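Re: weekly structure request thread

Next one in the queue (588 aa):
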Amino acid sequence: MPADPGTLTGLLDHAARHPGIAVAISDRHERDHERSWETIREDSLVVCAGLQATGVSPGDRVGLIYPTGFDFLTAFFGVVLAGAVPVPLYPPVRLGRLEEYQERTAAMLTAAGAVAVLVDGRVARLIGPAALAARPRLGLLSLDGLPRGTTAPVSRRPDDLALVQFSSGTTVEPKPVALTHRAVVGQARLLNRLWPDTEKLRHSGVSWLPLYHDMGLIGCILPALERPGPLTLIPPEQFVTRPAVWLRAISRRRATISPAPNFAYGLAVNKIRDEELEGVDLSSWQIALCGAEAIAPEVLRAFQRRFAAWGLRPEALTPVYGLSEAALAVTFSDPFRPFTSLQLDRTALAESGEVHLDPDGREIASVGRPLPGFALRIVDEDGGNLPERRVGRVLVSGPTLMTGYLDRPDLTAATLCDGWLDTGDLGFLDHEALYLTGRQKDVLILNGRNHAPDEAERAAASVEGARAGCAVAATWQREGAETERLLILVEAGATTPVEQWDALGSRAARAVARTTGLIADDPVVVAPGTLPRTSSGKLRRHEALRRWLTGELAPPDDVGPLHLAGAMLRSHRALARLDRDRKRRPEG
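Done, posted below.
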């Protein structure tokens, strides 16, 4: 029986019937290795059989910890074909934070109720403590170690659970978002309708976004299945160390679509040298999506100016908005016109949430209008609807919302009500277009006024000697004090000497005051890599403040051969103990 076209299995079957369409993965030498969806499906069937022979049953949740590569794809779709539910998690990329990584990974595996964890061989050397703490019933598995078995793909329905995608966890610990086949397939179809193929133009994509992240997985992989087209993947660590590989891949593959968060556009402007772009032509790039974090219009303009000489068109830059709980996208700017923004009076925003234009005020980019089937409401603290140009909480309804947080009815009830999702974001509408002003839990409250932290953070991180994009703004109150104070935490650049940190802090405070009018009484400079981040690289403001208040804000451990060897030994011992405990466990 053919798979239901409204499921992930149906998408994979559909793509496999187009043998000429391939996925390419770029290696560190920028050589593109291709594999057809037909081959990926065949390899995934082998994984499916092995998982079933191991004891994975339909509906079971299986953790996946892989870097970008073909193994991720075959593991992911092998789990899907077995009727189980993949739970993509991030690999240990910050080796100086291994203990923190182990704790967060164990918590996510436990929250997802994973019965097994499929891991890359390199990951297996370090993942032991997390696996031991989570104790998945079937243990740690590798693709090479799966037993051979008879393939028996399991049919699933559109309303069955398809994927557990963890939220980013910027303000709280990551939450397990339960997404159905209908939701994730629906997202792929919505996205593809935004850029239809024509006789003259066949769309193709390039992405360096992690595959454990919804923007990389749901936003890039699934649309390439739903309407089979070329897709090139770049391991994220290659982009971070050499941003030029992103633009060279777009040129080499003649890609039309490529997404990235705001920081990536800024990194490209600051780090790519002209000589790295010899022969590059960006004229094929139709849609440069920007989302997943606060969008700085000045960064997008700088990116367009910087790379216009290589054929980048101003209308390519496309701000968007979405979140894991909506299976990704909610609003899109017009992908074929230059993005728009408003400059707003800061005092009116801070005091009353009213929107008044001010040519010298805070600039906010529009993230566009709702996708077909989606609707927005802006509400006050009591849940009443607000008119256009009034800031309030952003509520979303639409066809691809989550069913809830997995096994957490309490969290679900607090977030999802009568088909409306409380996003936790603040914003306003103008001519039906959405403008975001910040996260409700991140708002800086000073002297009774509300201020967004991102503008202050960008100002602090832009001064000489600071590490680009690495600053946190938060408010706190001394014991017994009547008013709150503004704390600015900023990472020093790798080459900034410690004896210059005080001067760096003073420059950062002056930049914040000049840009926002806010006085930072407590500028604190910390070592590179000190500020805590989410799996997708977003700064965790509340966790940074907590660690600073408790004296726990410290730089990552030095990662030398002895440190790494010790971590691998601890992992080996933990996995050995987990294996012994599993063998002692009575059957059933």
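The radius of gyration is 24 Å. The chain is about 35% helix and 25% strand.
Next request, please.
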